[in-house]
């Protein structure tokens, strides 16, 4: 009989995917389910990207690419970051990965040794725990509240830095809260971590979906941090499995050494197609879609306040709202289960994102059309009085 490794028992379950499976079961039974659980845009890749994929396929460009990724795409990404986010990087600092998940896995495997400790905020994206676990390291979650925008502060990092701590992993904007670390606080964080000879992994997957003011990458504050990003969210290409790492040039060969064995390369046809994402035609589409996300956020914030579902911190990015349900329930799992089965709305329970806010919070994803959001609010308004 096969016996699972101990890490399987230690790994956390991604409840958002469990909710998605339950929702699909109900759909197969004929129920109309509104999906506000999973973080997947309802938009798909623009037609110019799809056409470019088809041309690449017809041209036979489906073989292995270099482990670093194809050079034209790396150049496009460097230009994109330099133009949009104020950086000054070269394409030689970029390695193309199999999605942000592949990037995070490679980052952890490249930086962490057995017994090392990595600090993360609570709330956090649960899959990160498993990437760290599989590298042989451990995670220390630091509870962070509304006063810190649910983000790590330099003060809390200093108070929790231990003998085995090697670095930190933060996301800005974050999943599940949609909040960003302020540039001032990020500067303090980086300075402290560097004083401890540690490293910073900065998840910027939602950087392109930031709705408030000028948007800058953390690389504008320090060139030595390691940045993760992806084509899944802003570029609406979740199933294409394409992401990237930006790292100091002299560290890239270390990541490449692992990637060439573990992944061989990122999907080659997707790489060729992704070059079209940076065309003027595609970028105009992405800007319009970003505005649509902002309008959805603003609509939901108003309606949730009306329904006595407070949002402790206004999200400035991503497509998530972290909602306080404590007026109605002290059990987020039960609340979400009933909401799905009785009202046909799938959201993610707070237990998915760490223990600090597990029972009183839920995450709502607004990566779905405005008419469906309006229907969800109408159903929610009918549902809430039934659980008082």
UniProtKB/TrEMBL annotation:
<dbReference type="InterPro" id="IPR015421">
    <property type="entry name" value="PyrdxlP-dep_Trfase_major"/>
</dbReference>
<dbReference type="InterPro" id="IPR015424">
    <property type="entry name" value="PyrdxlP-dep_Trfase"/>
</dbReference>
<dbReference type="GO" id="GO:0030170">
    <property type="term" value="F:pyridoxal phosphate binding"/>
</dbReference>
<dbReference type="InterPro" id="IPR004839">
    <property type="entry name" value="Aminotransferase_I/II_large"/>
</dbReference>
<dbReference type="GO" id="GO:0006520">
    <property type="term" value="P:amino acid metabolic process"/>
</dbReference>
<keyword id="KW-0808">Transferase</keyword>
<dbReference type="Pfam" id="PF00155">
    <property type="entry name" value="Aminotran_1_2"/>
</dbReference>
<keyword id="KW-0663">Pyridoxal phosphate</keyword>
<comment type="similarity">
    <text>Belongs to the class-I pyridoxal-phosphate-dependent aminotransferase family.</text>
</comment>
<protein>
    <recommendedName>
        <fullName>Aminotransferase</fullName>
        <ecNumber>2.6.1.-</ecNumber>
    </recommendedName>
</protein>
<dbReference type="InterPro" id="IPR050596">
    <property type="entry name" value="AspAT/PAT-like"/>
</dbReference>
<keyword id="KW-0032">Aminotransferase</keyword>
<dbReference type="GO" id="GO:0008483">
    <property type="term" value="F:transaminase activity"/>
</dbReference>
<dbReference type="InterPro" id="IPR004838">
    <property type="entry name" value="NHTrfase_class1_PyrdxlP-BS"/>
</dbReference>
<feature type="domain" description="Aminotransferase class I/classII large">
    <location>
        <begin position="32"/>
        <end position="380"/>
    </location>
</feature>
């Amino acid at each position: 009989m096969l016996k699972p490794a101990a890490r399987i028992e230690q790994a956390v379950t991604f409840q958002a995917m469990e909710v998605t499976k339950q929702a699909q079961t109900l759909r197969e039974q004929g129920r109309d389910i509104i999906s506000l659980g999973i973080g997947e845009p309802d938009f798909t890749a623009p037609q110019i990207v799809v056409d470019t994929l088809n041309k690449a396929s017809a041209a036979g460009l489906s073989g292995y690419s270099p482990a670093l990724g194809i050079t034209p795409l790396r150049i496009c990404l460097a230009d994109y970051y330099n133009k949009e986010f104020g950086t000054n990087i070269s394409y030689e600092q970029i390695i193309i990965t199999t999605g942000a998940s592949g990037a995070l896995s490679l980052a952890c495997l490249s930086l962490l040794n057995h017994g090392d400790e990595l600090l993360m905020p609570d709330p956090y994206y649960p899959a990160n725990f498993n990437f760290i676990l599989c590298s042989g390291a451990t995670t220390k979650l630091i509870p962070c509240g509304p006063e810190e925008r649910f983000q790590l502060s330099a003060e809390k990092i200093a108070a929790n830095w231990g003998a085995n701590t090697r670095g930190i992993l933060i996301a800005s904007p974050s999943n599940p809260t949609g909040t960003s670390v302020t540039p001032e606080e990020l500067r303090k964080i980086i300075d402290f971590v560097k004083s401890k000879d540690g490293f910073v992994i900065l998840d910027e997957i939602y950087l392109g979906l930031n709705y408030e003011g000028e948007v800058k990458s953390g690389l504008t504050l320090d060139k030595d941090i390691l940045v993760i990003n992806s084509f899944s969210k802003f570029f609406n290409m979740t199933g294409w499995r394409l992401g990237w790492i930006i790292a100091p040039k002299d560290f890239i060969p270390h990541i490449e050494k692992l990637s060439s064995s573990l992944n061989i390369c990122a999907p080659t046809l997707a790489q060729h197609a992704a070059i079209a994402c940076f065309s003027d035609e595609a970028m105009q589409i992405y800007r319009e879609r970003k505005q649509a996300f902002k309008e959805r956020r603003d609509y939901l914030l108003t309606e949730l306040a009306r329904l006595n579902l407070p949002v402790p911190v206004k999200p400035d990015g991503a497509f998530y709202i972290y909602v306080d349900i404590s007026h109605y329930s002290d059990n987020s799992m039960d609340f979400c289960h009933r909401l799905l089965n009785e009202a046909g709305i799938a959201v993610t329970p707070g237990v998915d994102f760490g223990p600090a806010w597990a029972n009183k919070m839920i995450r709502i994803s607004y990566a779905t059309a405005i008419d469906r959001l309006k229907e969800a609010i109408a159903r929610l308004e009918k549902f809430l009085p039934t659980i008082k």
